[in-house]
Amino acid sequence: MAEKIALTLSNRIRKSPYYKSTKRYGASAFSIYNHMLMPVAYEGPVADYWNLVNNVTIWDVAGERQVEISGSDSYRFVEFITPRDLSELKVGQGKYAIITDENGGIINDPIILRLEEKRFWLSIADSDVLLWTKGLARGLGWDVNIHEPDVSPLAIQGPNNLPLMNDLFGSWVNDIKYFFFKETELNGIPLIVQRSGWSKQGGFELYLMDGARGDELWDLIMQAGMKYGIKPASPNNIERIESGLFSWGNDMNIESNPLELPFEKFCQLDKNADYISRDALKKIALEGVKNKVVGLIIDGDSFVGGCENPWKIYSNNSICGKLTSAAYSPRLKLNIAFATVDVNVSSLGEKLTVETPWGLREATVSRIPFI
Amino acid sequence: MAEKIALTLSNRIRKSPYYKSTKRYGASAFSIYNHMLMPVAYEGPVADYWNLVNNVTIWDVAGERQVEISGSDSYRFVEFITPRDLSELKVGQGKYAIITDENGGIINDPIILRLEEKRFWLSIADSDVLLWTKGLARGLGWDVNIHEPDVSPLAIQGPNNLPLMNDLFGSWVNDIKYFFFKETELNGIPLIVQRSGWSKQGGFELYLMDGARGDELWDLIMQAGMKYGIKPASPNNIERIESGLFSWGNDMNIESNPLELPFEKFCQLDKNADYISRDALKKIALEGVKNKVVGLIIDGDSFVGGCENPWKIYSNNSICGKLTSAAYSPRLKLNIAFATVDVNVSSLGEKLTVETPWGLREATVSRIPFI
Q1: pLDDT by residue (tens digit) across A181-226?
Q2: Quick check: B222 contacting A, CB < 8 Å?
Q3: Is the terminal CB of chain A with fewer CB neighbours within 10 Å at N or C?
């Protein structure tokens, strides 16, 4: 497992503004995210995990591209693409939202940032939301402008993020609430600073607004972080499973709908604003979902690496679902996973069998997050 | 150059139905194409090139996903998304078409296959056309159904493709005209066989319609191909530049428009059917394009590998464009490239200067294809 494949580069695979820095700091493996190289390991997934969990780390997450939506119909449009009620979303605030198509299928799960009354960013997972929103807006004929701006997030994550952030920006950052943000600069580098990040270890995302200055920003943070023992890291498969963070393309996709996931607080099916998936989701809610995304704890030897192809799951010798993400948790000393299973076998404590690359294993449906 | 990066696998990166076979046959490097692993080298780019040019090769191009469009408005819809006149497109025929947005920006450049009067496939390059078309269709409110079927192309390319195709399918394949296709099967494996492929060495694409049978199909072709010395290969950067085949994401993208490329025969701006980019493209045609995509022949030592980031191009010491694809042609014994340059310096014979990774080089605007 955790097999590494040799990737040939070409223009079509975009390089992040931090790419040179990540190579210089020893990025040892990459993924592709929104057509862009994204580092996923430095010292290795487990060492990187401990660096994240114990201290403070810097992540190149430029692959989380932004889709900017402006124009007189922009607020109406962002309400239209999600079942989440955004009527309370303030300028300077972000909210996690599930973007759905007319069938309730999950197109993406971005953070939606409200930059101005009529200007938004969708900070996206790995699918071409730019294309879907552009197509939809053109078809509707609404007054919105949609493009991908020159914006590349860099994350500072880990329990010791605040002293570093204070040194870099001053103590005002302490008052930023979760998913709120502020426009600022660092040595003249234009940034948006948001309390955010794809871990539960605390931290910020810095949205770099000038792609030519990525390495400069990286170096500033690394220099300031030296006294805190900062390490380069990345979205970490182990930590994000422990913390209950689902990954679009792994644990959900256009074939899933948000009612299959523990996304109740992101679905206000009766919200006032019109939205594309209302009929579909209300029908699903009425009839009941067929599948549920659940946590699993799995017996046996510690997993080495994750899940690279869905693993089959059995209940009473019949296939009842698929496992989509897996890791050995060094803190829990357990194999943990996310799986999509038939709703009839989705209750806490349900015993299932998983076909792993190392043979059949017993598994128990468990609460999410695991930690 | 031709740097190889270690890629970490996850579910989010899909595996082709031929993935196991390609690994078994020695695929040494991959790219990601429509969120799917695609092999891009076996013996190496130059050895693979000679295998393709001299003989017959088998390619895993499952990453060329299909977007199926059906429903009563489906013909109207496929006309709507391209400036190409499709009124003569017959059932059983395919045509290369440039898909554009309302600004004339290039969304993708698929082959459009007409399977039935009211059912089409778009055999796509590397962007989520599924999402754009779904968004557009929903916004328009037209009666179309759009999804990605379980279809995975495998290409047989090279001058000796026909004897092998005859052995596999019979002599009827000789009568298939370029881009025409026929539904058939091989040992019960459901296929569409099309005279097609992303090289100019001749050949076919077999659209596998059952993803569970990829390795079986691969093995059947390999066994039949042994007597012809078949080799595994892939879309080849050297051959496709020689042959004038542009790559979406490399040589064109949503910032380009089809009038900047030698795509005259794919643009019928006055076609009868309504299409999304008519106003934009007619305005560009009237005002004249700002940029042109041209061929370049470049002086100096043979390039090793291709272009992984756009190379700057100068005319009289001012930047006038960017080089987007490059290779050393073993047949021409020349460095050849595609570039997007200011229209004022795009004439045949124009002398330019390219900033390569090995220093400044003199270049001459040349005809496409090169061979």
Answers
A1: 999 999 999 999 999 999 999 999 999 999 999 999 999 999 999 9
A2: no
A3: N
Answer yes or no: do A195 and A232 share one domain.
yes
Same domain, A160 and A233: yes
> Would you say the C-alpha torsion A250, A274, A85, A192 has a positive or negative sign?
positive
Mutate to test the interface with B, among A1, A3, A4, A12 (most CBs of B within 10 A): A12
And the tokens for B353? 């200067």
Cα-Cα end-to-end distance for chain A: 24
Q: Which residue of A has its CA nearest to B33?
A: A35
- How far apart are the C-alpha atoms of B294 and B323, rounded to whole Å? 9
* CATH code for the domain of B185: 3.30.1360.120
Residues of B with Cβ-Cβ distance to A322 under 8 angstroms: none
CA end-to-end span of chain B: 24
In this complex, is the C-beta atom of A308 within 8 Å of any C-beta atom belonging to chain B? yes
Q: Quick one: pLDDT band at residue A4, thresholds 50, 70, 90? A: confident
* Nearest-angstrom CA–CA distance, A291 and A33: 27
Tell me whether residue A130 is in a domain: yes
Q: Is B300 on the interface with A (CB under 8 A)?
A: no
How large is the ipTM? 0.96
B-proximal residues of A, 149-208, CB under 8 Å: none
Q: Of B98, B58, B363, which is closest to residue B214 (Cα–Cα)? A: B58
In a domain, B247, yes or no: no
Domain containing B197 equals 19-61+151-240
* Nearest in space to B271 (alpha carbons), one of B143, B120, B81, B60: B81
Q: Which residues of B touch A137 (CB under 8 A)?
A: 135, 139
pTM: 0.96
Number of domains in chain A: 3
- Does residue A236 share a domain with residue A155? yes
Only one residue has tokens 């072709």, namely B221
CB of A43 less than 8 A from some CB of B: no
How far is it, in rounded angstroms, from Cα B186 to Cα B209?
11
Indicate which of A7, A133, A293, A322 best probes the interface with B, i.e. most B CBs within 10 Å of its own CB: A7
Q: Is the CB of A106 inside 8 Å of chain B's CB atoms? A: no
Which of B1, B3, B4, B11 to mutate to probe the A interface, most A CBs <10 Å? B11
Digit-coded pLDDT (tens) for B289-329: 999 999 999 999 999 989 999 999 999 999 999 999 999 99
CB contact under 8 A, B134 and A132: yes
In chain B, residues with a C-beta closer than 8 Å to the C-beta of A129 are 131
Same-domain pairing of A57 and A191: yes
> A279 lies in a domain?
no
Tell me, what CATH number does B285's domain have? 3.30.70.1400
pLDDT tier, B3 (very low <50, low <70, confident <90, very high otherwise): low
Residues B157 and B234 in one domain: yes
Tokens of A106: 């999950």
Is pLDDT at B1 greater than 60 in this prediction? no
pLDDT number for residue B2: 52
Cβ pair A138:B101 closer than 8 A: yes
For B147-193, the pLDDT digits (tens) are: 999 999 999 999 999 999 999 999 999 999 999 999 999 999 999 99
Indicate yes or no: CB of A249 within 8 angstroms of CB of B35: yes
- A363 CA to chain B: closest CA distance, Å? 20
Q: Is residue B311 part of a domain?
A: yes
Tokens of A326: 């897996």
- At position B170, the amino acid (one-letter code) is G
The sign of the dihedral angle between the CA atoms of A27, A28, A33, A36 is positive
Residue at a domain's end among B274, B289, B304: B289
Same domain for A163 and A141, yes or no, is: no
